[in-house]
Amino acid sequence: MANGESTFLKRCRVIPLPDRRTAFEIDGKQRICWHHDPKYPRPFFYPMIGPDGQSLTRMGHPGAPNHDHHRSIWFAHANVGGHNFWTDQTDARIRQRQWLCYQDGDDRAVMAVELEWFDGHDPKPLVQHQMIAAVRPTEDGGLELEVQSTFQPIAAHVEFGKTNFGLLGVRVAKSLSVYFGGGQLSDSEARSGEAAIFGQAARWVDYSGPLGSPSDHATEGITYFDHPSNPDYPARWHVRGDGWMIASTCMQRKQVVSRDKPLVVRYLLHAHRGPVDPKVANSKSDDFAMQPPFRLTRSKSPHQQYEIHSED
User: Fold this and answer.
1) Using CA atoms, how far apart are residues 135 and 146, in angstroms rounded to an integer?
2) Where do the structural domains in the chain lie, given as residue ranges?
3) The domain defined by 2-309 carries CATH number 2.70.98
């Protein structure tokens, strides 16, 4: 890690793989993988492995072939400067320019990357996107994925338009969904189901369900937390019974972002064993709210360029 400390045999590790993939391992087992091959319109995380060893996310919609852009866990937005980065049917693309830091540790593994958003017409990017992702094990055999993103326009400013679609989407596994499986949607305000939660403000939303058929006893889920520093906290949520959820940063209004004041958003995903426990989720929400942001700094070591810090 920092200051020349050896990262050999740390419990949590970041492992670069062929085909432009980066794996996060805990105790020698891959739990999350970051895909940034330019053959895809935008990068994404897949799979997100739960405590029982099965993925709690999926690629694409179980019943709609025109939703292949739903790639597990991914950043996108339907209207950035008038360009649609959500669908696969436009020329707008998100590309990883370079990785900045891979950092192993006993408590967490952290990765920082530099992404660029291209509108498909100008060879110069529209937005620079720095993403820091941390993966941590939890006591129940689950894990947390914390993601911090900074969006800075190349021009003086850019508008993230009003839309339900943006910024961090999560498509859960088929069996976790309400419609296709035996799952349940719930939120921090004790509401349940798509009709009750859609468009409403909440600190967190959870999707939990059986790992196999609805008759299976094993249940796991993902709790998705918004952060108080994000615009218009608590978020309004776009959720569907077919198995997806997103904290809609721009559901109520547009966000005009400048070079001097970039857009910074922080989210936490908790892959947990059993159905969601509201007391545990509320406690984790409070803890997340108190955590300081990540900082990427130039390293003093001659062997690495950057280091990632937080006030743990």
Assistant:
1) 7
2) 2-309
3) yes
